[in-house]
From TrEMBL:
Chief location of this protein within or outside the cell: membrane
Protein name per UniProt: MFS transporter
Keyword Lyase in record: no
Membrane topology classification: Multi-pass membrane protein
Keywords assigned: Cell membrane, Membrane, Transmembrane, Transmembrane helix, Transport
Pfam family of the protein (one): MFS_3
Signal peptide stretch: none
Domain of life: Bacteria
Spans traversing the lipid bilayer: 44-64, 143-167, 173-190, 233-252, 264-284, 319-338, 350-375, 381-401
Annotated compartments: Cell membrane
Upper classification of the organism: Bacteria, Bacillati, Bacillota, Bacilli, Lactobacillales
Length: 405
């Protein structure tokens, strides 16, 4: 891992700057949620915060296409990051006043703008990755990025919670603004070294963003093996959106690990999933290298059914172990899939393609986080059987798309 980073210093520098900005994405999230929960109309307030975090994903389809059409990507990265610093200074200014629903709405709008800018920055960076990394090392690069992102998300949430224990929310917002300013400075420092790489980037012909976005979707649809893998991975990622709420309802019905509180059991499940993902990212280039993405997805689909059967058997240990293994498999496959996209598509379209793919991969969890609780309202057994049915859906979808190839 360290030898790879030393061989690719520019990739390491631009990736580190981008990962720091991802800390900023999550750092203030706990503060926003705690503010929402303390308001009289807490359910509406929490929904507003959640929407401000989710909506940028939908706009990312268009932002990626827009980024592909832009020259001077490094200059845009710097301006974008400084804009995010200003937005969080605005949030800090808002939190000088008594916390009301109107204040939260305004802060959520600023947060929405910051997240949009963050997704735009990721699209601007994507073409650099292809030019900085050899194709045979792309899986290693994507594995390291995926692992680092997982760790950063966990670290940012913990750091945000710890800062709130010692500082006011406006101070945490200002610290977040300072972090974005530092990221902007980092992009500025590496701009001279990346200028020759930027000059090599081909720019997509000028056309409407809507037309470019439509063409990106058509490209994925026409490449049926890629589209099949994308659908499988999106749905497998989506499973975890429904797993946690159902697991929360399952815990009171189960007596295993009675010495652990309910929050600790939920944290244990989340921890095993995170560790499984990270270990999978590290092992992506080392194990099952001769297995195709589709074959590994089939194995993952089976584990979804096994998790459902573990719920039906009232086996807490089975759920924990199988969820960890499923996360491990996804951790192995995800970098390989990202690398295949980067290697397959040209640099002038890469920002749009990567943003489209990444957005599709994270769209399903919000859906399943609503769907499975609805099933649990019928009965817990219905929700448990839902996991088995979800596995069947994955196999059926794979068969249908394979027939279209």
């Amino acid at each position: 891992m360290f030898s790879f980073l030393k061989r690719n210093p520019l990739f390491t520098q631009i990736s580190c700057a981008n990962l720091l900005s991802k800390i900023g994405d999550r750092l203030f999230y706990t503060a926003m949620l705690s503010t929402a929960a303390a308001l009289p109309h807490s359910k509406i307030a929490v929904m507003i915060v959640s929407v401000s975090e989710t909506l940028p994903i939908l706009f990312s389809f268009f932002l990626g296409s827009l980024a592909d059409q832009k020259r001077g990507k490094m200059d845009l990265l710097i301006k974008n990051t400084l804009l995010r610093a200003l937005l969080y200074l605005g949030i800090g200014a808002l939190f000088r006043y008594p916390q009301t629903l109107l204040l939260l709405i305004l802060a959520s709008c600023f947060n929405f703008g910051s997240d949009l800018a963050g997704n735009y920055s990721s699209s601007l960076i994507a073409p650099f990755t292809k030019n900085l990394i050899q194709s045979d090392e792309m899986t290693t690069a994507q594995g390291l990025l995926s692992m680092a992102t997982q760790l950063m998300n966990v670290a940012a949430t913990l750091i945000g919670a710890m800062l709130l224990s010692f500082f006011k929310k406006l101070t945490v917002a200002n610290l977040n603004a300072l972090l974005f300013a530092v990221v902007g400075l980092g992009f500025g420092l590496i701009r001279p070294q990346l200028k020759p790489v930027e000059n090599q980037l081909q720019i997509h012909p000028q056309e409407s963003v809507l037309a470019t976005t439509k063409r990106n979707f058509q490209s994925l649809w026409n490449d049926k093996p890629v589209f099949n893998n994308l659908c499988q991975l999106a749905l497998l990622n989506g499973l975890f959106g429904g797993l946690t709420p159902v697991f929360t309802l399952f815990i009171p019905q189960n007596k295993s690990l009675a010495f652990l509180s309910q929050p600790l059991k939920i944290a244990l499940l989340s921890g095993l999933i995170t560790v499984g993902m990270i270990v999978g990212n590290l092992l992506s280039t080392k194990i099952w290298v001769n297995r195709s993405i589709q074959q590994l997805n089939h194995i993952s689909n089976l584990f979804v059914a096994f998790i459902g059967l573990s719920f039906l058997q009232n086996s807490l240990y089975g759920i924990l172990v199988l969820s960890g293994i499923l996360a491990l498999l996804l951790g192995i496959v995800s970098p390989r899939f990202s690398a295949s996209i980067i290697n397959h598509y040209s640099t002038e379209r890469l920002g749009g393609m990567m943003t489209t793919v990444n957005s599709l991969l994270v769209l399903i969890p919000p859906v399943t986080s609503v769907l499975f609780p609805i099933l649990s309202n019928v009965s817990l057994t219905t929700a448990y059987l839902g996991f088995v049915g979800y596995s069947g859906l994955l196999f059926l979808l794979n068969w249908v798309i394979s027939k279209l190839c």
